[in-house]
Design goal:
The complex is a heterodimer of chains A (590) and B (307).
Chain A (H helix, E strand, L loop, with lengths): L4 E3 L32 E3 L15 E5 L15 H10 L4 E3 L5 E3 L2 E6 L5 E6 L13 H12 L17 H5 L10 E5 L2 E5 L7 H4 L10 H7 L15 E7 L3 E6 L13 E5 L4 H9 L14 H7 L4 E14 L10 H9 L3 H9 L4 E2 L17 H4 L2 H14 L9 E7 L2 H18 L2 E7 L1 H10 L5 E7 L6 H4 L16 H12 L3 H17 L3 E12 L4 E2 L15 E2 L9 H9 L9 H5 L1
Helix pairs in contact in A: 8-11, 15-16
Chain B lengths: L1 H28 L13 H10 L6 H13 L14 H36 L4 H15 L2 H15 L12 H31 L2 H8 L4 H13 L1 H15 L3 H7 L5 H9 L3 H29 L1 H6 L1
Classes of the chains: A alpha+beta (590), B mainly alpha (307).
Chain lengths: 590, 307
């Protein structure tokens, strides 16, 4: 007899029962009706009971853009990563909450010095053509990923592996990569320094295995439907470029029995309003974004479908430290930072649930808190008071105001924020701001050259769940160090962090590094990004998480309440003794 | 006539060459390259990539190589869609754009001529004013306003038609085709009305009427044909434009046509893709202008005899 639990999973933000009094302000003619899900019931192994599952398990996901390629080692960007997460499985993968769980490797050992990782592949791990996934597959794939000939953007993700740096730079042969197959099912990886986030890196597409035989047979065409052999929960069934991509359940996947969703269709929809309309029309179960201008309407009329949660990204402005006026002028940088009212920016300007921030590293990480910032606890009036003092200290005044240039890449949201910041500077300090918007690539180039920029928009989404991905941007000589920060003490600190293997000590070092950056005020933090999307309330088995990883394999659709007779009936049935079913084959045998 | 067409065709070649040259160098002038992104590439990898696509050669050499390639109709690999060549992408997108654009063209022409002629026959009466006011609104309200409105009304509120997407079914084509056709329809209606009024006042129509021909015949046989001449000359470039898709309509209805390649290609600095679609568009315009000339000659005997 199966045990049945009634679980109220707190999966969706704002997914509580609808308050009848909430109807105020609703537009009755236009208010869309969403189906209400039955309560989710799971069996002992965490699988949903068949009784609660909906008849059709077809998941239609909006996915912003057509991926440039499905080659996991060459793919770039979030849309491609979403699809690849369904098609492939790395050694390690994530659960709905974003925690690391065994993937293609059923378990692993880490040596005491933190330098050697041994992964034991699952005995039943298989490619979508039925062939076993072997240790050699991973050796081949990781070598391919760092091979300069593959010319991948993300090869540098693998830099912690011994010799990877030299291979990436073309100074060593790919065979020297410290990844070896101990036997058919064990892979050993040696690192140059203990890298606490290394397991997290192994969820990235750049570490996914590719099927060597089909790559050799088809060349770069190996990603086409009918040719792509993958090892994830789904396989590629159909690809209509820029219209849709259909994935179906991979029968050879080691946990195929637990995958409920039968088909996933990804739609590349670039326009957020279009995506929203298609969700409303019932064409989509999952959107990638929510249109800014509709947010208020949505939060009033579709609260059960709306999910807003912190994301591992920071929105901030950078100061060009290599040119006036910000070169050697800490007081000015501090003044401009303090003069900004973040609550107004997020609460009145963007209005999207973003989290006002005084830090570089996004808030909401489970095991990291930023350094203490005195001003964070102050009132805005006190911040502005201090900003005026610093502004005068920096040599500016009402009669001799600062003239500064604020540069951002063309986008409605960036424009709104830049305009508001300029207004705040004007009001608090009397700064005269010139706003300059540029097309994205022009903007990136100007930022990198540092010859023209003064204050400029900056934003960063972490590559892996560790503060280091933000801190390392400010290493002297880092290609994205667009502020031109060059501080030997800070660089040494980064080296120490990279070599430190005791988590608590490493955390303290990172906090110290972040404190240093903020004390030098190399950036002007604005907010921590949030992810926001609409999800069919009947879709369960997913949860908001900072990395915004949502594998379809763990999701499932439950019945709507109107479809299910009632929950009690389901419960009765689940508790029924098998003897009561005379046609049950197990009884017939007795 | 044959001599004339051959000459016209020959003159197309330098035009195209000029277009290719200008486009090639203009897109290279734009700052940033196809491999720039917020997550910067290590310099060695970047060098590797550039070498692979010959981007490290002198620009003139790249230009000559490109001319050689397109002479063999090879438009090269796309920088952004790394699984596809430009030929693939155009071959995927063009049929979609042609289908949708063709449908829009039919709607715009039939609707526009009908409304225009009708308004002309009721010149200065209420019907004329109403239809021309509507046409003016059609011209002035941009696609990106009309299209979402149409989705809201017909897909969300009434639920009659899909909100977007593309699977080749007729139902998904209706809304985008109408949205694409509307501005052109309005234009055609106004042009038709204007030239129809002019024709209706000309002496040969008076003669036809004086001969006692039925009004139907006067309009359909004698007035309509010459009245369509300005429409035809407008149609050449307009048809090329509508058939190559509209980035706005494609975005709003998520249609995989080639229109968005123009904009996305340029934003991604996908040099080869931009060149590919520019050449495609250029050839199309040249072909259509050529066709328009031929139709013109067929419609208007005066042009034929002057040649």
């Amino acid at each position: 007899m199966r045990a049945a639990w009634l679980l109220a999973l707190p999966l969706l933000v704002g997914c509580g029962p609808r308050d009848p009094g909430e109807g105020d302000g609703k537009d009755p003619a236009n208010a869309p009706r969403l189906p209400e899900p039955v309560a989710v019931q799971l069996d002992a192994s965490g699988q949903p009971l068949p009784d609660v599952l909906a008849q059709t398990q077809l998941l239609r996901r909006g996915n912003s853009e057509e991926p440039g390629t499905l080659d996991p080692h060459r793919a770039e960007g979030v849309p491609a990563a979403n699809i690849l997460r369904d098609l492939f499985e790395g050694l390690v993968t994530t659960d709905p909450e974003g925690r690391l769980i065994p993937g293609a490797a059923g378990r692993w050992d880490i040596s005491r010095d933190g330098l050697t990782y041994t992964f034991y592949l699952r005995e039943d791990g298989a490619w979508s053509n039925g062939e076993p996934v072997t240790a050699d597959d991973f050796v081949f794939s990781l070598r391919r990923s760092v091979d300069p000939d593959t010319a991948t953007v993300h090869g540098r993700m693998l830099a912690p592996i011994a010799n990877a740096d030299d291979i990436l730079a073309g100074r060593a042969a790919v065979e020297t990569l410290a990844v070896t197959a101990l036997n058919e099912r064990s892979v050993q990886i040696r690192l140059t320094a203990p890298t606490p986030y290394f397991l997290g890196l192994l969820t990235h597409a750049a570490t996914y295995p590719v099927h060597r035989a089909s790559l050799e047979r088809h060349g770069s065409d190996f990603v086409q439907p009918g040719k792509l052999v993958s090892n994830g929960a789904f396989e590629l069934a159909e690809w209509n470029p820029r219209a849709s991509m259909r994935l179906q359940r991979n029968p050879h996947y080691h946990a195929a029995g637990r995958v409920v969703i039968e088909e996933v269709v990804y739609y590349p929809i670039e326009d957020q309003n279009t995506e929203f309309q298609r969700f409303r029309a019932g064409d989509l179960d999952w959107t990638d974004q929510v249109p800014h201008n509709q947010f208020r309407w949505i939060s009033r009329n579709l609260p059960a479908a709306l999910s807003v949660s912190p994301w591992f990204g920071s929105y901030f402005y950078g100061f060009n430290l290599t040119r006036p006026p910000f070169e050697d002028n800490l007081a000015l940088r501090q003044a401009l930072t303090l003069a900004i009212d973040r609550d107004i920016l997020t609460g009145k300007v963007t209005q999207f649930g973003e989290i006002p921030s005084f830090w570089l590293v996004p808030q909401g990480l489970p095991d990291y808190d930023g350094p203490e910032i005195e001003a964070a606890a102050w009132s805005q009036a006190k911040r502005e008071q201090r900003a005026r003092e610093l502004y005068n200290e920096a040599g500016y005044s009402e009669d001799y105001p600062l003239e500064v240039e604020l540069r951002y890449n063309t986008s409605e949201n960036h424009r709104k924020i830049a305009v508001s910041m300029a207004a705040m500077w004007k009001q608090v300090l009397g700064v005269r701001t010139r706003l300059i918007n540029e097309e994205f690539r022009v903007f990136l180039q100007n930022r990198e050259l540092k010859r023209r920029t003064e204050a400029f928009r900056f934003g960063w989404i972490g590559d892996y769940q560790d503060p280091y991905t933000f801190l390392e941007l400010f290493r002297s000589g880092h290609r994205r160090n667009d502020v031109g920060y060059a501080n030997p003490t800070f660089d040494r600190l980064l080296e120490q962090i990279a070599a430190e293997r005791i988590p608590a000590r490493r955390r303290n070092l990172m906090r110290e590094a972040e404190r240093m950056l903020l004390a030098d005020q190399v950036v002007l933090p604005v907010y921590t990004y949030v992810t926001k999307r609409l999800v069919d309330p009947l879709l369960k088995g997913w949860a908001p998480n900072v990395m915004d990883f949502h594998p379809s394999a763990q999701m499932f659709f439950v019945k709507a309440q109107s479809d299910a007779t009632n929950i009690e009936a389901i419960e009765d049935k689940a508790d029924d003794h098998p003897d009561d079913h005379p046609d049950d084959p197990s009884n017939a045998e007795r | 006539m044959l001599n004339y067409s051959l000459k016209r065709l020959a003159s197309a070649i330098p035009t195209l060459l000029l277009l290719i040259t200008a486009a090639f160098f203009l897109i290279r002038i734009a700052p940033g390259g196809p491999f720039d992104s917020e997550k910067a590439l290590p310099p060695d990898i970047l060098a590797n990539l550039e070498a692979r696509y010959h981007l490290d050669d002198p620009l003139v050499l790249q230009y000559l190589r490109y001319l050689g390639d397109i002479a063999r109709l090879d438009f090269g690999p796309s920088f952004h869609y790394r699984d596809w060549t430009v030929n693939d992408l155009v071959a995927q997108g063009a049929p979609v754009s042609f289908l949708l654009g063709g449908l829009a063209l039919v709607i715009a022409l039939s609707g526009g001529v009908l409304i225009g002629a009708w308004a002309a026959l009721r010149q200065n009466r209420v019907a004329d004013h109403v239809s021309m006011a509507i046409a003016m609104i059609g011209i002035s309200i941009p696609n990106f306003v009309i299209a979402p409105l149409m989705i809201l009304v017909f897909a969300i509120t009434l639920g009659w038609l899909p909100a977007g997407g593309w699977d080749g079914s007729f139902a998904r084509m209706i809304l985008p085709a109408i949205a694409l056709a509307l501005p052109m329809l309005a234009y055609v209606a106004r042009i038709t009305r204007g030239s129809m009024i002019e024709v209706l006042h000309s002496s040969f129509i008076r003669t036809a009427r004086a001969k006692g021909l039925p009004e139907r015949e006067v309009i359909l046989r004698h007035a309509l044909k010459p009245a369509l001449l300005p429409v035809i000359s407008y149609l050449g470039p307009a048809a090329a434009g509508i058939l190559t898709g509209s980035v706005v309509i494609e975005r709003i209805f998520t249609i995989p046509g080639i229109g968005s390649h123009f904009v996305q290609g340029a934003l991604n600095r996908d040099y080869t893709l931009v060149m590919g679609v520019v050449i495609f568009y250029g050839v199309l315009i040249i072909v259509f202008n050529y066709l328009v000339d031929l139709i013109y000659a067929w419609l208007d005997p005066r042009i034929r005899y002057e040649q």
